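Action item from last week, closing it out:
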Amino acid sequence: MTTTTQADTWGLHESQFWLRGKQPEERVHHAEELGFWNVYGHPEAEEVLRDPATYSSDTTRLVPKEMMAGVDPDIDFEEMQAGNLLQLDPPLHNKMRKLVSRAFTPKVVADLEPRIAAVTNEMLDAAGSSGRLELVEDLAYPLPVIVIAELLGVPASDRHLFKGWVDKLFSSSEQFSLKEQTKGREDAVKKSLEGQKALVEYLGVHVDERRKQPREDLLTKLVEAELDGEKLTRNEVVNFANVLLLAGHITTTMLLGNAVLCLDTHREWDERVRADRSLVPPAIEESLRYLSPFAAVARATMREVELGGVTVPADQMLMVWVAAANRDDRVFAEPDTFNPLRDPNPHLAFGRGIHFCIGAPLARLEGRVALNILFDRYPALRTIPGEPPKFQVNPNMTGVRELPLTTA
């Protein structure tokens, strides 16, 4: 007899076994039928993320060219990846990251707090007083999009466009594969590329505008920036801005929705956190561990390696499941228990090493400010019987995309 878990009730992807109280049979597992290796263990994941010389972030070289040709014969991978911070290795990664790190210094982030509070209140005012809130649509999506759009210098009023394109990027429930390219997988890649192209074209218009008319915004800083005496190419600026716009809002959207859901599911913690606001940050950290927004990141081996007692050859793709690592019972006592007082809590939700999420301080601030305001405005936030949350369908993500709540 199988036990129905909360993950099943919520319709979370069946491949996410760690949300169903299970530990992996192997911490490093070769998924031969998919053509890559899965890394599930926490120490193993940390080892991979901390060693960019051995485990490269440039994974596109391992995707068979014929696979992409079937989707779009005109696709130029190099063009698409130029300036993409997530796919870069040192030394170029370090230089590119340094360019943007000035926009995310502790002072710059801290100074955004009044704006984050103002936007949160504006969004909740607009949601009205019907006693009902759809958390993602009313707050968790628009808040971080408005903040990152204003930082970059693109119109926050275009956020409905971003949403349409981003939804295309992550709309597939198909598991990624380097082997068999089924029609479902091919359609998923096509749809994802449509969203990617639309975003890139949109940002390209704004980049061209900044070359002619500079402003006081991050996009202008990227256009004017120099690396080794040379300005970034148009592609580099566009792809760089694309990553910032995407990563700058998706994580916070899922973080805030997941945190509210975790507290609704664990009412005793909801009461404690409301009564003692110093528990808000650790509650956010525990929700990041418990429901990690981006479940996996990819890496490519540069040489043969020993990982978790297994030999992995060179030029192999690794899917590093940080969400599974965050439930590793060798590192976290009672990993399936939601406990904001967990200390230490070395979760990997924001990554590790040189690719540690540059926007993590901003995401944490947005989460803290928004959660406190939600507590101040609503004496209770409860899920509605018969209207369960809806999660992202992509197996590489764990985040609510719809969360209807009653505020009475």
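Closing note: Residues 234-265 form the longest helix (32 residues).
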